[in-house]
Design goal:
With 259 residues, the protein is an all-alpha fold. The chain is built from 13 helices and three strands, in the order E-H-H-E-E-H-H-H-H-H-H-H-H-H-H-H. The chain has a three-stranded antiparallel β-sheet with strand order 1-3-2. A hairpin with a 5-residue loop joins strand 2 and strand 3 (39-41). The radius of gyration is 33 Å and the shape is rod-shaped. The N and C termini lie far apart (83 Å). This is MerR family transcriptional regulator. Keywords: Coiled coil. Residues 77-104 form a coiled coil. Pfam families: MerR_1, TipAS.
């Protein structure tokens, strides 16, 4: 059985012009011609075309493909084994490339342009991506969230380390105040709560006193925040919330106003 050049082009997903070119350079000469002189391709021709296209897909130049296919010491089975290995190697490279691109996409989506090693170096055992879906669901439509994403996308590892160090310093001073029995409505505790609010404004998004009190309440109402904050000192989440509320009231925002 033989096939026309148009049929073969359709089978192989190439152009008729490509087949004409392969014929002209001797890479794939059709096995027969019709009475009218039209090219006719048989099954052996199709097998050779398949091998050509395999090698072309792998980036081999036509001249090298011709040498490989016409080597009398290589049988068709050897070609298949060679192509299988070449394709397997390429698939593995592409898989690694795809994984790298996926990580880059995820990092951009999360707004944290760090490698896993860098994230561990900066954040320790706290994973900033762990609750990303929930964060997007709860606050994704807010300007604060969008501002946070914009800023985070531009931060380097050194930026994140500086932000984390500043936050840790504030946390440690809260622990010291709590350990000393300093009342949350004292000037020093309220001043530190204000510093905490300004740190959020400076590092993440504009955080007014109303939003700050919402965060303070969440530190206590959501056990995940409570457990993480209380790692620095048992009861710190409650102490931090109360200092935030006292500071907000000092600046004219009554906690009761937020419900």
């Amino acid at each position: 059985m033989s096939y026309s050049v148009g049929q073969v082009a359709g089978f192989a997903g190439v152009t008729v012009r490509t087949l004409h070119h392969y014929d002209e350079i001797g890479l794939l000469r059709p096995g027969a011609r019709s009475a009218a002189g039209h090219r006719r391709y048989d099954d052996a021709d199709l097998d050779r075309l398949q091998r050509i296209l395999f090698y072309r897909e792998l980036g081999f130049p036509l001249e090298e493909v011709a040498v490989l296919l016409d080597d009398p010491d290589i049988d068709p089975q050897a070609h298949l084994r060679r192509q299988y290995q070449l394709l397997s190697d390429r698939i593995e490279r592409l898989r690694k490339m795809a994984a790298a691109v996926e990580r880059a996409m995820e990092a951009r989506k999360m707004g944290i342009n760090l490698t896993p090693e860098e994230k561990f170096e900066v954040f320790g055992d706290f994973d900033p991506d762990q609750y990303q879906e929930e964060v997007e669901r709860r606050w994704g439509n807010t300007e604060e969230y969008r501002e946070s994403q914009r800023r985070a996308a531009s931060y380097t590892k050194e930026d994140w380390k500086r932000i984390q160090e500043e936050g840790d310093d504030i946390t440690n001073r809260f622990v010291a105040l709590m350990g000393a029995g300093t009342p949350t409505e004292s000037e020093v505790a309220m001043d530190l709560a204000e510093e905490h609010r300004q740190w959020i404004c400076r590092s993440h998004y504009e955080c007014g006193h109303e939003l700050h009190t919402c965060l303070g309440r969440m530190y206590v109402s959501d056990h995940r925040f409570t457990e993480n904050i209380d790692k620095a000192g048992p009861g710190l989440a409650v102490y931090l919330r109360d200092a935030i509320l006292a500071n907000a009231e000092r600046h004219g925002y009554r906690a009761s106003d937020g419900g």
